Amino acid sequence: MIDAVAFPPVRAFRMGECRAELERRADGTLLVRNPAELGPYPQKITERLEHWAKAAPDRVWLAAREGGGWRRITYGGALAS
Questions:
Q1: E strands within 1-79?
Q2: Which residues, including other chains, have CB under 8 Å from residue 65's CB and lie 6 or more apart?
Q3: Residue 35, C-beta contacts closer than 8 angstroms, at least 6 positions apart
Q4: pLDDT, tens digit (0-9, with 9 covering 90-100), for 34-59
Q5: β strands within 1-81, DSSP E
Q6: Is 21 helix (H, G, I), strand (E, B) or coil?
Q7: How many other C-beta atoms can be found within 10 angstroms of the C-beta atom of residue 53?
Q8: Count of C-beta atoms within a 10 Å radius of residue 75
């Protein structure tokens, strides 16, 4: 039996509109797409890392269990490396 694990509360977030259009092609291909327009997004994947490294450099970005504790990488540390 698996023990229940208590997770901290998760803040609400908006994923965007969830609609789908299906296109069936003669060759059997099915194309599924969301017709909603994309909102603004970063030009490069590191843009948000750069933002949070300036705004909260000591905040944990990634953490993984290591031995009996945790290995933590902050936004500032990640950008520096």
A1: 21-24, 30-33, 60-66, 69-74
A2: 71
A3: 19, 21
A4: 998 888 889 998 999 999 999 999 99
A5: 21-24, 30-33, 60-66, 69-74
A6: strand
A7: 20
A8: 22
